[in-house]
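queue> holo job accepted (guanosine-5'-diphosphate)
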Amino acid sequence: MARQAGRVIAAHGRHFLVAIEPPAAKDGPLECVMRGKKGGVACGDHVEISPTHPGSGVIEQVLPRRNLLYRSDQLREKLIAANVDQALIVVAAVPQFREELLIRCLAACEAAEIPAVIILNKIDLPESAALASSLEHYAGLGYPVIHVSAHGDIAALATRAAGQVSVLVGASGMGKSSLLNRLVPDAAAAVGDISVALDAGRHTTTQARLHRLPVGGAVIDSPGMQEFGLRHLDASTLTQAFPEIRARVGQCRFYNCRHLKEPGCAVLEAAASGAIRSTRLRVYQSLIAQSEGPTR
Ligand code: GDP
Ligand code: ZN
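queue> job finished
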């Protein structure tokens, strides 16, 4: 049968749900595997498939991506989402704010050239006030910060998401599922259906799924993460991924300054004066050290 164009709307181990585009009236998404062992497939990928049995097919080819958000540790890469307009990074003061995770997510977005928006959820809780003021620093770096409560007002988020393809990321417990269910009222049911369709005794967790928004656009939901490995970023990419460090390239005494402890370093001076946030510099330095480490 002829190849058909589609978009990956769920990734689940080596199994994917692909929505045929443009959608035919009666066809639901096809359950597909990748032909051979070629490269990875991400939720949001545009693909070409060959239908096999009714309801299933084979991914023949992943079409060129506009962008790809992924993380990586020593062992492997984890594709999060492809071909998105923006990343919505959900943070909250409760159960705890992990700034290093936010910094790593932002760096991954910068490296993938995906605009990042910080969503401060649980603004209804009194603990959120202090976090809201720390996040002003991030607004100053150019990342919009939006205040919402999944239990209350999400208007600012709904406006940001409308008409865009967004990937929703964040640590577990921040309220990602609650926000998704507000944006896409039948999301929970859809997730159940996808898990039933793809799991079939495989017991893998779904890595990501794409939900169409009733107002147009879509949200790709990824599972809550505990870590965001950036093994794939080399030192020069890391420098470009921190706007406040990127802005000072060329201002240090040594042209090849790594901004670790070199004399005459414009980045260290900016950190000493408070112009660069110390937590950001510390994470940057540890990422640089790791990128130069032996296990890369
Ligand atoms: P996820 O792990 O990021 O998907 O988080 P959930 O959506 O499961 O939410 C984790 C917990 O936080 C649940 O008990 C939610 O009811 C609660 N929660 C989510 N959003 C809010 C919020 O805006 N305000 C408050 N007070 N609690 C929230
Ligand atoms: Zn320097």
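queue> The longest strand covers residues 4-12.
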